[in-house]
Write a structure and sequence with these properties.
The chain is of the alpha+beta class. It contains eight helices and 22 strands. 20% of the residues lie in helices and 30% in strands. It has a six-stranded antiparallel β-sheet. A six-stranded antiparallel β-sheet has the order 2-3-10-5-8-12. Bound molecules: 2,5-dihydroxybenzoic acid.
Length: 349
């Protein structure tokens, strides 16, 4: 304990230096340079059964056109007011109704869409449309024009809900956000649907193309293909004690991540899987595609069902258990941590 007189002296001194915009490092060193991550973000889950009606209700309150993006933000309870899931990642549930268009714009934030419910809506990226089906993973790279639409009821349109994953908090932190609206509601369609997948989605690419862009030339990674790959590997006997069968999505032209700031993954866990414990400095948002199970995250128990969304902050010990076969989609800030050489991972035996 320091004597009272000395404490007063220091308090007076701190007030004095504050006038010069100075502060004593020795009072905050342990917080500024912690021994290990101490995230404000919490492990948390959004039960789709509880939020689905609320998402649908937004559909009668505001049109997609007025809202620009009709989205309910999933906000981490440990980061109130920050519209964030983690210090770097954002998540939201977007609804588009039959006959609606979410107008075209572009921004420096990278976005991913993971289709939760409904099908037949489309998203257009750089002049090409992609039709959405549940479980598809679709990208909107930084600074690409994108609009979303849904065919009218008469043509079989149905409400479509997807999970938006963006690097919004990261770009806010970096003060690197720019955005602009396209002069029309929709950008012109320049290529038929499936064009980029034909060029890059089959372990081939156009012979004279030179890849200079860090983002994937594929806009949509269809669920059918991802699911089949996981299934084949599982049947072949592949099963990691921590992850089950886990694959990462790639930019087929480089082998790197589909977008520079967010890594994306799809994993299969068999029934009655009891995963071993691991932790990692990337923070991960999960969306349950199929099945039921439990994520044990430190002291927190997250029971998950199909379409639920949950988040695991940096460096929290986690293990996954299942009641049935489970498929999980996830995204994290792993590429950022890896690029900065601060990705750490621990897998307990
Ligand atoms: O679809 O462009 O959830 O710009 C948040 C910001 C979606 C989008 C969000 C966006 C978008």
């Amino acid at each position: 304990m320091i004597p009272e007189s000395q404490r007063e002296d220091r308090a007076t001194y701190y007030e004095k230096i504050a006038f010069e915009r100075l502060a004593p490092l020795w009072e905050s060193l342990h917080n500024l340079v912690p021994r290990q991550p101490n995230p404000q973000a919490q492990a948390a889950i959004w039960k789709y059964a509880q939020v689905r009606d609320l998402v649908m209700q937004a559909g009668s309150l505001i049109s997609a056109e007025e809202a620009v993006r009709r989205v309910l933000i999933l906000e981490n309870p440990g980061l109130p007011g920050k519209s964030s899931m983690t210090p770097s990642l954002y998540a939201g549930l977007q609804l588009i109704l039959p006959g609606e268009i979410a107008p075209s714009h572009r921004h420096t934030q990278s976005a991913l869409r993971f289709i939760v419910e409904g099908q037949g809506a489309w998203t257009a990226v750089n002049g090409e449309r992609t039709t959405m089906r549940p479980g598809d993973f679709i990208i909107t790279p930084s600074w690409t024009w994108h609009d979303h639409g849904n065919p009218p009821l008469e043509e079989g349109g149905e409400p479509v809900v997807w999970l938006d994953g963006l690097d919004i908090p990261l770009l806010l932190h970096l003060d690197a956000g720019f955005a602009e609206n396209y002069p029309e509601v929709m950008q012109p369609v320049k290529r038929p649907e499936g064009d980029s997948f034909a060029r890059f989605g089959h372990n081939m690419m156009p012979v004279r193309d030179v890849i200079s862009d860090p983002t994937s030339p594929i806009f949509s990674y269809p669920y059918e293909r991802s699911r089949e790959a996981l299934d084949t590997l599982y049947r072949n006997g592949e099963l990691d004690d921590w992850d089950g069968v886990k694959l990462r999505y790639v930019n087929p032209a480089t082998g790197g991540w589909p977008m520079p700031t967010m890594g994306t993954f799809m994993q299969f866990l068999p029934k009655d899987f009891k995963g071993k414990e691991y932790r990692s400095t990337d923070s991960t948002v999960y969306c349950v595609v199929e099945g039921r199970g439990t994520a044990y995250v430190g002291e927190t128990t997250l029971r998950f069902d199909p379409h639920d969304v949950f988040v695991i902050p940096s460096w929290q010990p986690v293990r996954l258990e299942t009641d049935s076969e489970v498929v999980l989609f996830s995204y994290s800030d792993r590429p950022v941590l890896a690029a900065l050489n601060v990705l750490r991972e621990e897998r307990r035996g």
